[in-house]
Amino acid sequence: SVSKLQLVHRHIRAFPDFPKKGILFRDICPILKDPAALTAVIDLFEEHVRNNHQQVDLIVGLDARGFLFGPLLSQRLGIGFVLIRKKGKLPGATVSVSYDLEYGKAEAEVQEDAVAAGQKVLLIDDLLATGGTLYAACELMKKLQAEVLGCMVVIELKELNGIDKLKLHNVFSLVQY
Ligand code: PRP
Ligand code: HPA
Known about the structure:
The protein is α/β, with parallel strands linked by helices. The protein is built from six helices and nine strands; from the N terminus they run H-E-E-H-H-E-H-E-E-E-E-H-E-H-E.
């Protein structure tokens, strides 16, 4: 639906040289501030999931901005939500993986019992840049023997070719720059 996409598009801002010189930062805060725009995002994700995936067991969201959209979507679908967090935030037994960012380095973690072997999951985040973060999340899911059905983001930054890094996994995005 074109009008829902237009609504989403109109609620994304760009800030030059944030958080470092040379980065054009796409800001999704206006989406969260506008109930109609946020509803449009979740509607579009829900439509995509219902049209493309028969059975999904869990939505897996990435720290931090994947947490803004993931639980809203999982609740719509009537399934659970799992958190992948930056290192050191999750209690109990965890598995972890390190990765490179467009502007730094980080380590991601998931609780060992978050996903059972063979479960079908969809990953969600706000934005795909280099693909390092989503790739790391896929690695974590592989460690837990989960089946990654695909990745979903609000925004894809095409010039960074993150999709190449994720070539084994299908990526769905609402808005592309
Ligand atoms: C941003 C963004 C994605 C990731 C995309 O998060 O929200 O998670 O970077 O970049 P990539 O495709 O190059 O990996 P960031 O790591 O800045 O953390 P935050 O969500 O905690 O702000
Ligand atoms: N905007 C928001 N988050 C990001 C970006 C961006 O341009 N690049 C990497 N993470």
